[in-house]
Amino acid sequence: MSFELRASLRARNFDVSLSLADGETVAILGPNGAGKSTLLGVIAGLLRPDSGTAKIGGRPLFNLDGGTRLWSAPHLRGTALLAQEALLFPHLNALDNVAFGPRSAGVSKAAARESAGHWLAEVDALPLAHRKPAQLSGGQAQRVAVARALAAQPELLLLDEPMAALDIHAAPLLRRVLKRVLKDRKAIIVTHDVLDAYMLADRVIVVEQGRIAEAGPTRQVLERPRSQFAAGLAGLNLVTGVISGEGITTPDGRVFAGQHDPEWSPVSGQAGVAAFPPSAVSVFLGDVHGSPRNSFAATVTDLEPHGDQIRVRASTGSSAPALSADITPAASADLGLVPGMDVRFVVKAALVSVYPA
């Protein structure tokens, strides 16, 4: 039973169309303010768009086009929204919190509690059944909230950064729980964590400024990104331009040499991108000997620890994207790098992947 949505909301500059196949989990990625939470609010019925339609299978959730308008109430949509905070009822124990959904649907108390026990066991929280929310850790409460959402038997599960409020010990357990329970379900998960996308999602959609910037299978988007946001999540530099024989030519006329990916069949003259890891970038002071193909003047904007390396962020021109280089702390000290310093970035052409945008 598929899900289809098309919605536009002028006040938020939001205009998105998407669909999900039965049993598919899609991760929604994007910067703050991009429209991710707006998307979940529209689907859940908490936010009314100016126009658009949505349906699960053949059943409409809303239709705001044309003369006859339909708008289903949130509790009639067959969706369940799991937010960053568990939002459990404080006066009910975990078992009764989870049983609330089935009870609201008219299921008997005994059957609802039986269902609640099943879902608590599914999320490894059955021993917590008789605890009140105040007696639960953040990770435990969020697992109970997952069980409560699933016990309502939603046709579409919506997750709004469910790991964001958890500590580094609780998040991996919840991620494993979600991987298991989402296996055969339709779900949309909003996240800033690339690990959530890799572990939980069949497909990734990147939203920027209220529009879909790119979409595709998770590994494809994160290994061959086409948007700056996806490239940043994947830890890659991204340069855009027009594909040429050597690589790509940037809008300011610079040629960026790289390796054409034969899998993508690039054609000269079409829009393209060049992606490469910060480890492919070397930093020099002054002129570089040997005339490397990818040598660009840059101004250091920031230095920050990155594992056992120093990540050097630099501007390469007013109209060019910022680039990053990873160098050793010793190299950074030898170069005397500080923000505002003029340097040269040299990128190994053999480590640059060029493919169509």
CATH superfamily membership of the largest domain: P-loop containing nucleotide triphosphate hydrolases
Tell me the number of strands: 22
Could you tell me the CATH topology label of the largest domain.
Answer: Rossmann fold
Overall number of domains: 3
Structural class: alpha+beta
Question: Hey, roughly how much beta strand do the residues contain?
Answer: 25-35%
Determine the fraction of residues in helical runs and give it as a percent range: 10-25%
The largest sheet has its strands arranged as 7-8-9-3-10-11
What are the low-pLDDT stretches, counting only 5+ consecutive residues below 50?
Answer: none
Helical run tally: 9
InterPro entries: AAA+_ATPase, ABC_SmlMolc_Importer, ABC_transporter-like_ATP-bd, ABC_transporter-like_CS, Mo/tungstate-bd_C_term_dom, Mop_domain, P-loop_NTPase, Transp-assoc_OB_typ1
GO molecular function: ATP binding; ATP hydrolysis activity
Organism: Paenarthrobacter nitroguajacolicus (Arthrobacter nitroguajacolicus)
Domain ABC transporter: 5-234
